[in-house]
Design brief:
The chain is an alpha/beta fold. It is built from seven helices and six strands. It has a six-stranded parallel beta sheet, sandwiched between helices.
Amino acid sequence: MTTPGGADRVKVQWVVMLHGMARTARSMAPLARDLQRAGYRVRNIGYPTRRYDVAGLVEHYVRPAVSGCGTAHPVHVVTHSLGGILVRYYLQHNGLPPGSRVVMLAPPNQGSEVADYVRDWLPYRWLMGPVGQQLGTGPDSIVHRLRPIPVEVGIIAANRSLQPWFSRLLPGDDDGAVSVTSTRLPEMRDFIVTDSTHSLMMFNAEVRRQVLYFLENGHFAH
């Protein structure tokens, strides 16, 4: 694999990709191809969000994916939505090799008011499983039990909604599922807001460019 500019070097760096709730690894495939063309070794992980809670998903999917990359070189993680909570949970008791970075796309880092609103709906409970009950803003939300993570984190929020009925539940700018404010972390290294939507931001050309830029530079291209 070579860089887009045609350089003959290969990065001895992994990128583990974690998709969002009720999605599959296919949703991250275009971004995975960008990373592969840039010379990264990519593990685009699929996992069944209905079957486990956050702890179960980390134990069965995130931990094996990250540990399989070894510790000799950086292991970056790129996430969408729920994937950001999974990597935060993983990093409560595990580390990444030196030089590793994390990019989160629209993570519900402070919980989502939409999850509060729909948590008792039977279709939602069936479709989202145990993990869907953990992502609200209330005191029982898992996001309130997570400590700061010791890694360089870049967060990309979205501010366009395809779900106006849910946007009414969210304070300030939002992407139809998560408010822009809720995506932030105190320890984040950099933060940008893009003109994209929650469900489709992984396909947005500017979002994909910024992911690559952060992995290379530790900050976004402002």
